Automatic annotation (TrEMBL):
Pfam families: Oxidored_FMN. PANTHER family: NADH OXIDOREDUCTASE-RELATED (PTHR22893), NADPH DEHYDROGENASE 2-RELATED (PTHR22893:SF91). Belongs to the NADH:flavin oxidoreductase/NADH oxidase family. This is Alkene reductase. InterPro entries: Aldolase_TIM, OxRdtase_FMN_N, Oye-like. It comes from the Bacteria. Keywords: Oxidoreductase.
Amino acid sequence: MKDTKQPLLEEYQLGDLTLKNRVVMASLTRGRATNAGLVPTPLMARYYAQRASAGLILSEGTWVSPKAIGFINVPGIYTEEQVAGWKLVTQAVHDKGGLIFSQLGHIGAASHPDFFDGELPAGPSAINPQTHSFTPVGFKETLTPRELSLAEIKQTIQDYKQAAKNAREAGFDGIEIHAQAGMLIPQFLSLATNQRTDAYGGSIENRARIVFEILDAIIEVWDSTRVAIKFTPVALSHVGIVVPDEETIPMFQYILKKLNDYQLAFLHIVGPAEDLTGTPVAVLQDNYFSHFRRHYSGRLMANMGFTQESGNAILKEGLADLVSFGAPFIANPDLVERFQHHLPLAESDRDTYYSGGEKGYTDYPASVK
Ligand SMILES: Cc1cc2nc3c(=O)[nH]c(=O)nc-3n(C[C@H](O)[C@H](O)[C@H](O)COP(=O)(O)O)c2cc1C
C-alpha cells in the first residue's frame, strides 16, 4: 500500500523479503516462557500472531545456550523442544502474512549464580558490571564474574552459529544479533568491562573482534542479507558500568566501517533515551541518526521513542530506512492499523511486562475489527 503522507505504511523491499510496511516490532522480553525448559508456548504464538501486521517482527531476545541465560522465563533456542516451540510462533506469524526474525542474545557477566547452580557467570573480564539480574526470586545485584577463557569465547561463537541454524529450522525469516546495552557483546566493546590482554581485549580492533567472529559464524548458515545487528551506543541507565566511554565513538566508527563490507539485512540503532550532554558521546546528541547514516552505507533501522509522527518524519528525511517500535506494540497489537486510521494508542501496564500469563500480554484488544 502506498501512502505518500505516511512512509511508515509503504511496502518495503528488504532484499528478497517484501515487508508490508516499514513499521517493525522491536524485540520485547516478556518473560512468558514459564516452563523449566524455557520453551516458547502456544500463548507466545498467539501474542506474536496478534502483532503480525507489522512489516517485520523481531523476536524477544533469545538465549543461544544455557550459559547465555540471565533473566527469568526468557526462551532459548538451543534445544529441540525450544525449536519445536518456536515453530508454533513462526507458523502463527506466517499464517497471518507476517515475517519474523529471531533475536539471538547472551547476557554474559550481567547474569547471576542463581541461574547456574551457584556457579559464577562469565564475562570478558573478572569485573562486576554493577547492574541487576532478574532472577527467579527477584532482582539481584550482579557479582564479579569469571573471565571467559579463549576456548569459551570460541564455544560462545559456535553457540551463536548453532542457534542461528536452529532458528532456520524453526522457520524464522532471519536473525538479529542482540548487541544491545547490557549484553555480552557490549561488555566486550566497553573499556570498563573488558580488560583482557589477549586478542579480544585492548585495542578497538581486539575488543570488537567478537562482533565480527559471531557475524562470520552466522553467515556460514544464513545469507548475510537475512542477518541484522542491534546496537545501543548511547545507553546511560540500567546498564551498570557498560556506559559510553571515550573510545565509544571511534569504536563505532570502526564497527560501521567494517559492517559496510557485509551485505546485512539492516543495522538497527537505538537512540538516546536521555540527554547526552556531558557524556563522552555528547557530539551525537544533535541529528543522532545522521551520524550513523554518514558512516554506514547499508540499510538503517532507527529505534527509541518513535511516534507515528516522528517515525514518518525520519523516513521522509531519509535518515533511516525502517523504524522499529518497542513499548507501543505491547498495548497496541494493531499498531499499524492504528497508524493507518489515525487512532489513539493504548497505554501498557508496566506491572505485567514480565509477569507471565495472559494478563497484559494477549488481552490488549485491537481497536480496528
Ligand atoms: C518490556 C521491554 C522488553 C525489552 N526487551 C528487549 C529485548 O529482548 N531485546 C532488545 O534488543 N531490546 C529489548 N527492549 C528494548 C526495545 O526493543 C526498544 O529498543 C526500546 O523499548 C526503545 O524503543 P521504544 O521507545 O519504541 O519502546 C525491551 C523494551 C521493553 C520495554
